[in-house]
Each structure stands twice: as structure tokens, then as C-alpha cells.
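R.M. (postdoc): so does anyone remember the format we settled on? I'll just put the C-alpha cells first.
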């Protein structure tokens, strides 16, 4: 059964509509009260699952030990951190990593870009297993983009300021917040200069195999951990393990991607 946030949210919305119909069609009394309660619970559940399904669904599947089965023989274990498939009696497990880059090539000099490319080549050459990198780019709607950038820029400045004010600031957090501030500042300056903004979603995928599910999952987690530390250290980027609906989006993007810029922006992790 395909169990994900989208379908659960739709189901909760249908339950809410049924409750609303029951509340309006009843002539008062206990039935009307029960229907109103069902309507409220369904509506709240639908909103929560739609907005925070990537947190709620993994929590529910882990606690109830639900294994999701998809068409084609793919399955997702309760932890919702890998995708597994049995091929010819051998198990294959895939993990996805989101890559957040706070610096672009336009912010660097030609010499810095050359060094950055060398770091990337060295990082990849140190990885002893196949890795797939995917990048999707899209044109951003400028009408709302500047206001959002200004908000994010102010938030990044606030986080940086608060971290600096601590008696013992975290060096890694300072470095990340400084990069965020510099990134948003550079994007705002490019907008002011008349550049057309572009967005990008970048993720990596790695696969491992084993004679059992447990062996395949354990191996792919080792590979994902190695890939995460290698890329983060070499490229100075933020790498996040994708789970739940975020992982499912990457899996679905292997077949089709959003058709509009708005769809791409709403899909970012």
C-alpha cells in the first residue's frame, strides 16, 4: 500500500467533509456534536499532515513498524530513510542526501572556481562507490522573491548576531551563518543590479547491496555517512540526510519533475 503524507492528508480532508456534512444535516443533538468533532479532527489532521508530513509520517511508521510497499517491488522501512528493492534474490538499498550550497560560482574569482573544482574532483576520487548527483534549475518569480530574500537575510543576520553574543559561540554555526548572510546579501545585490534569479535543487543518491535487507541498509548508511562527511569537508557545503516525504520526492523525480517554478520552490527541502 502506498502510504505517504499526500494521501493521508487527502483522506483526513475527506473525513472532515463527511463530518461537516453530518453536522449541517443533523437536527442538533449528540449526532451533530459528534459530526462537528469529526470535522474538526479531520481538518486539523489534514493541515498538519500536509504541512508537516515529512516529520509526522516517519514518526508514525517507526512507532507502528509500518513498511510501505510501492508498485515495482520498492519498499520503505519504518525509519523511512532508505528505499529497498529485491532483484534476483539480492537486496538493494538507496539513500538520498540533500546538498545546500551557500556560495555560487558568480561569487568567486576564476582562480577560486578552479580551486573549488579541484576540491570536488579530489572528493569524488576518494569515494570508492558510485554516486549519482542530480541538479534541477528553474527561473524564480521575481515578484515575491526579493521580499522573501530580505526576510531570510534579516533572519540569517539575527541568528549570526545571537551566536556571536554567546560566551562560547559554536565555530561551525558561526561559519554556516556567515555563509548564509553572505549568500543572501549577494543575491539581493544581484537582484538590485538587474540579474534574473535562478533556483536550484541539488541532491545525491547512493546505492548498496546485500544478501539481506539489513545488510544492504547497513552498507548504504555507511556509504551515505562517508559521502556526507567527504563532500561537506571538501566543498564546505551543508549535507542533510533526506527522509520521509523529502526522500520520496527525490525518488519520484527519477521519473518526472515539477512543471513550474512554483512547484519546484514548494518541493525544496
Amino acid at each position: 500500500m502506498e502510504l505517504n503524507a499526500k494521501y493521508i492528508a487527502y483522506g483526513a480532508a475527506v473525513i472532515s467533509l463527511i463530518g461537516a456534512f453530518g453536522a449541517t444535516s443533523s437536527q442538533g443533538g449528540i449526532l451533530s456534536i459528534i459530526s462537528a468533532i469529526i470535522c474538526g479532527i479531520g481538518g486539523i489532521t489534514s493541515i498538519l499532515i500536509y504541512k508537516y508530513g515529512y516529520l509526522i509520517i516517519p514518526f508514525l511508521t517507526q512507532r507502528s513498524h509500518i513498511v510501505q510497499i510501492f508498485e515495482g517491488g520498492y519498499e520503505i522501512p519504518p525509519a523511512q530513510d532508505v528505499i529497498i528493492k529485491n532483484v534476483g534474490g539480492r537486496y538493494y538499498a538507496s539513500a538520498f542526501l540533500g546538498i545546500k550550497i551557500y556560495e555560487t560560482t558568480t561569487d568567486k574569482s576564476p582562480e577560486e572556481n578552479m580551486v573549488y573544482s579541484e576540491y570536488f574532483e579530489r572528493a569524488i576520487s576518494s569515494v570508492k562507490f558510485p554516486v549519482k548527483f542530480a541538479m534541477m534549475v528553474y527561473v524564480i518569480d521575481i515578484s515575491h522573491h526579493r521580499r522573501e530574500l530580505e526576510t531570510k537575510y534579516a533572519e540569517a543576520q539575527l541568528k549570526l548576531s545571537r551566536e556571536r553574543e554567546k560566551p562560547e559561540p559554536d565555530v561551525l554555526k558561526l561559519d554556516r551563518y556567515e555563509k548564509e548572510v553572505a549568500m543572501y546579501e549577494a543575491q539581493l545585490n544581484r537582484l538590485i543590479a538587474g540579474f534574473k534569479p535562478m533556483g536550484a535543487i541539488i541532491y545525491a543518491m547512493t546505492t548498496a547491496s546485500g544478501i539481506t535487507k539489513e545488510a544492504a541498509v547497513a552498507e548504504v548508511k555507511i556509504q551515505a555517512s562517508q559521502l556526507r562527511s567527504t563532500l561537506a569537508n571538501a566543498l564546505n557545503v551543508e549535507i542533510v540526510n533526506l527522509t520521509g516525504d523529502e526522500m520520496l520526492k527525490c525518488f519520484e523525480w527519477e521519473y518526472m519533475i515539477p512543471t513550474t517554478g512554483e512547484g519546484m520552490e514548494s518541493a525544496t527541502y
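R.M.: ...and that's the designed sequence above, right after the C-alpha cells. Also worth knowing: Residues 72-266 form one domain. The mean pLDDT is 77.
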